[in-house]
Design goal:
- Helices cover 20% and strands 39% of the residues.
- With 216 residues, the chain is of the alpha+beta class.
Length: 216
C-alpha cells in the first residue's frame, strides 16, 4: 500500500518551502515557480462519476514556470505541475504530475462583447499521470452489474479543466473539474474517479506586476 501520509506531508512542506523561496526571489528573471494552488473538492462527484466513493478532499498544487528550452513552445509552452488530492475517509487519494495549459479569455472581441468582463478571466486544462492508492481489482460480479470496479492500474491518465478569474494581478479563484481513468486507452477494470470544486491561486512573479513596478 502506498504511504500517502508521507507523500502528503512531503508535498505540503515542499509547496510552502518553495513558496517562500519564490517570494524571496521575486525579482529573479527566471523564477522557478509560476503559481501555487489550493482547492477543496467533492470526492467522486462529477459528470463521469459513478459515486461509489465520497468525501470532501483538499487539493494542493504547484506549477513551475515553462522551461526555456527551444522546443517547448512547439507543445504550447505549458506549465509543469505536481499536486496531491488526499481523501481522509479511507477512499482514494491521488498524487499527480504533468502539464497545465492556461489561456486568457481577454481579447478585443470578447472584452467588447462582455463590457470588459473577460479581461480577468482564464481557461486552463491539465494533462497528467496520477498515482493513486485505490483498489486495482474488485469483485467481478459487482463490477459487471453495478460498475463497482477496481482502477486496473496503479498509475492512470488524468485530465483537468478549470475556469477562473484573477484579481490584484497575483490572486485568483476558479471552478475546477478533473477525471482520472484509462477508458479507451488500456484494457481491464476501469473504475475512474471525478473531483469537482473550487481553487484559490497565487501567481509568483506576475509579469504585469513587474512591468508596473518598473514603470513606477
Amino acid at each position: 500500500m502506498i504511504n500517502f501520509r508521507f507523500i502528503l506531508t512531503f508535498l505540503f512542506l515542499f509547496i510552502f518551502s518553495f513558496s517562500g523561496l519564490a517570494s524571496a526571489a521575486d525579482e529573479d528573471d527566471h523564477p522557478l515557480l509560476h503559481k501555487t494552488v489550493f482547492g477543496i473538492f467533492f470526492h467522486d462527484r462529477g459528470p463521469a462519476s459513478d459515486r461509489h466513493e465520497s468525501g470532501v478532499d483538499p487539493n494542493w498544487e504547484i506549477q513551475f514556470n515553462a522551461p526555456k528550452w527551444k522546443l517547448w513552445p512547439w507543445i504550447g509552452s505549458p506549465y509543469p505541475m505536481i499536486g496531491v488530492t488526499p481523501n481522509f475517509k479511507g477512499a482514494t487519494s491521488v498524487f499527480y504530475g504533468g502539464l497545465n495549459y492556461e489561456f486568457s479569455l481577454s481579447n478585443k472581441f470578447t472584452d467588447r462583447l462582455t463590457s470588459n468582463l473577460t479581461k480577468n478571466f482564464f481557461l486552463a486544462g491539465g494533462v497528467s499521470a496520477a498515482l493513486h492508492n485505490g483498489p486495482l481489482h474488485k469483485n467481478k460480479a459487482g463490477c459487471e452489474e453495478n460498475s463497482d470496479c477496481g482502477f486496473g492500474y496503479r498509475v492512470l491518465p488524468r485530465l483537468a479543466i478549470e475556469l477562473g478569474t484573477t484579481s490584484w494581478k497575483n490572486y485568483g479563484v476558479s471552478l475546477f473539474y478533473d477525471h482520472m481513468s484509462h477508458k479507451g486507452i488500456l484494457p481491464g477494470e476501469n473504475e475512474g474517479i471525478d473531483h469537482i470544486g473550487i481553487r484559490y491561486h497565487y501567481t509568483f512573479n506576475n509579469p504585469d506586476r513587474k512591468v508596473k513596478n518598473q514603470v513606477e
